Amino acid sequence: MDSWEDQVRRFMLDEEEEGDELYLVMVPALQLCMYDEKIPEHTSSLSGAQKVREILEGHERWCKVEFRMESHIFRAVAHFLRVENLLRDTHGVKIEEQLGMFMFMLSHNASTERLKKEYQHSGETIHRKITEVFDIIPALTHRFVKLPNVNQIHVKIASDPRYMPFFQVSNRSRIFALITTSQHKVPTLIPWFSLVLYVMGSVQ
Question: Is 0.85 surpassed by the pTM of this model?
Answer without folding.
Answer: no
